[in-house]
Amino acid sequence: MFSRLGLPALFLLMLSAAPAQTVTFSEQIAPIIYNNCSKCHRPGQVAPFSLLTFDDVRTHGRTIATVTQSHYMPPWKPEPGWSAYRDERRLTADQISLIQQWVTVGMPQGDPAKAPAAPVFTDGWQLGTPDLILEMPQSFSVPAVSEDIYRNFIIPTGVTEDKWVRAIEFRPTARTVVHHSLFFSDTTGAARALDGKDGQPGFPGFGAVFTVAGTSSLNGGLGGWVPGTTPAFLPDGISLALPKGADFLLQTHFHPNGIAQTEKTVIGLYFGPKPAREMTQLQVPAFFGIRANIDIPAGSQGYKVRGSFILPADVDAVGVYAHAHYLAKESKLTATLPSGEVRILLWIKQWDFSWQDQYLFKDLVSLPAGTRLDGELTYDNSSSNPRNPNSPAKRVKWGEASTDEMGSLLLNVVPKKATDIDTLRSISLLYILTPVAVVPASKPFFISSGFVDAASGQGGAVTPGKIMVLYGSALGPAALTSGLATSLGGTQVLFDGVAAPLLYTSSGQLAAIVPYSVDGKAGTQVQVKFGSQSSDTVALPVAQAAPAIFTVDQTGAGQGSIINQDGFTVNSRIRPARKGDIVSLYATGEGQTSPAGKDGQIATTTYPKPLRPVQVFINGKLAPEMFYAGAAPGAVAGLLQVNVRIPADTPSGDVPLEIRVGEAASQPGLTVAVQ
Q1: pLDDT reported for residue 5
Q2: What is the pLDDT of residues 284-296, one digit of tens each?
């Protein structure tokens, strides 16, 4: 039952039947497109086509339906539900559903008089007139065909006193080839000395700017820009230093597209008062992973890089972002507080090199001294990665080129006490300069996103008694060993030092049941021991309940693992349940039980029930008759069985199915077959 795992779809499905309506462009679709898409999909912007008229949208309607349903567009990469950010570019489930309906019914226009006016975009400054406008002194020629170009440009500021920057508005002239840009300042004159040495404005290279901009670049510089970025002011009381006499440094990454272009960037700076607290930047792993020994073998699909940093002072986190290249497929930043609480500050499951945004928290995130920051990145250097720049795949190491790799999670913070800024910066610099120890191949290794629900395949919070699958390396013996014990094949999995029951173990994968001792905790520290070797501890958040239903094909979606009323046939399209039949569903993640759960106990004479109420929804409606919800007889604690009647008015076919334990719902996309 537990030997697979494919991740299910990430989007939410609408489980309740919506009233019949004719969806038209004028009334429902135009507001969605104009408010979320047209900013980039208009002439002169990075998008490949415009979405400003009905004809524009109808022409690309099927593409829009596909990319919005998959969440490829709008380009907003963080997983929902963990941290709240300002200016989120995320469509709601209702909006995605409306687009699907509109395409399905033939993309009607409706009454043009009811459509909102198409947006009018000004070429003026989005944030008002800047306090200082800077322009590249000379234009830079971007060739039609080339490998990716990193170019550093120097713009004299002429400021005669220290300034404090609250916002920067970036206006490139060659938008279709500007991949992103980073901003720095230089007071040494070292950048000017490199300017134009090769006959073109500026100087080349990704890492060169960090050598000339000094420690200010290691503290986060002045921010950056990617296509789609909405210019915004930093939160009140926060601004960045632009020292008197400084040059403004602009590091721009160009991605040539077959058309020769000319870039002459204009920058608008908005100043504010000197802040009471200065901002700095923390990176895990340090300095884009240069000391993380990145060396990705050809064909590797799950190469992992991890770094940890312990905060030496109380801070407020302002914003977060990640950086990596084409081979990255996932990035995650976790904060483990001294109390044990675990917060996921950023989680990108579907990394895309083309969309590396910066995410300002909706509210400042308080992190006390002693908090451990864990940055985790996963890479896919196989031919199955459609973004792999090498065909066939080849060994890739750390480097500046886009075809090399690097990786880091970056957190901008301000100290609670202004006087702690020097401590933060000095400890952070020491962290950057400290060599990373090479992890022995025999040492168990995993990252938090490799610990997933055995039923849904999704990562995230664990619950007492949840059956989990862990992916990693050197976790256990080469040959699969199965059973039910807290030590299996020489492997133990410890949650805060408590050994979990294991169902099977092997070198790359194992299955464990979360001990009930995590109940009531905000987070738990997990460690794998195999033989004499122990992994680093990895923090996981703990939830009271997070139910997930097992599925027949073990993908976490589609046909649920359901036994029909006869007690032995598996529910399927070939053997559907009849309306009015009682079926048995199997799940995990119900949390603590009554009587209290016992690790590894087999349900024979005592059948514990979940502490929180259990409900079943079939076709979006609450099933009125549920006969049992508790431990599955003859199975290990943590496997939930629910017996429920299929309502008489249920439609035939593959019908949506959901279990709720308290307020927590099972994964979307599940069905039961009904005839």
Answers
A1: 32
A2: 998 888 888 899 9
Angular region, 397: left φ>0, alpha ψ -120 to 50, beta rest: beta
Domains along the sequence of the chain with CATH: 25-114 (no CATH), 132-271 (2.60.120), 280-365+381-433 (no CATH), 448-541 (2.60.40.10), 548-674 (2.60.40)
> If you compute the radius of gyration of the chain from its CA atoms, what whole number of angstroms results?
27
Confidence class for position 358, pLDDT limits 50, 70, 90:
confident
Reported as a single tens digit per residue, the pLDDT across 418-452 is 999 999 988 988 888 777 766 677 899 888 888 89
Assigned token pair, 181 = 């840009």
Max CA-CA distance within the chain? 85
pLDDT of residue 15: 27
Alpha-carbon gap, residue 9 to 110, rounded angstroms:
32
SS3 380: coil
Alpha helices (H) in 394-469, listed in sequence order: 421-433
Say if residues 332 and 407 touch (Cβ distance below 8 Å): no
Where are the extended beta strands (E) located within 158-272?
A: 163-171, 178-186, 203-204, 223-225, 240-242, 247-254, 261-263, 266-271
Q: How confident is the model at residue 212 (pLDDT cuts 50, 70, 90)?
A: low
Is pLDDT of 211 > 70?
Answer: no
Other C-beta atoms closer than 10 Å to the C-beta of 529 total 18
DSSP annotation of 84 reads: -
How many alpha carbons fall within 13 Å on the CB side of residue 444?
Answer: 31
Q: Strand runs (DSSP E) across 423-581, as ranges? A: 451-453, 467-471, 481-485, 491-495, 498-499, 502-505, 509-513, 523-530, 533-534, 538-541, 548-549, 558-559, 562-563
Residue 230 clears pLDDT 70, i.e. is over it: yes
Q: What is the mean pLDDT of residues 575-596?
A: 96
Tokens representing residue 300 in the block: 């590797």
DSSP conformation class of 570: B
Number of H helices, E strands in the chain: 8, 44
- Summarize pLDDT for 538-547 with one digit per residue, the tens: 999 999 999 9
- List the strands of the sheet with 451-453, edge to edge: 451-453, 467-471, 509-513, 502-505, 481-485
Distance of alpha carbon 554 from alpha carbon 166, whole angstroms: 50
Structure tokens at 585: 């569903």
Q: Decide: 456 and 572 in contact? Cβ < 8 Å.
A: no
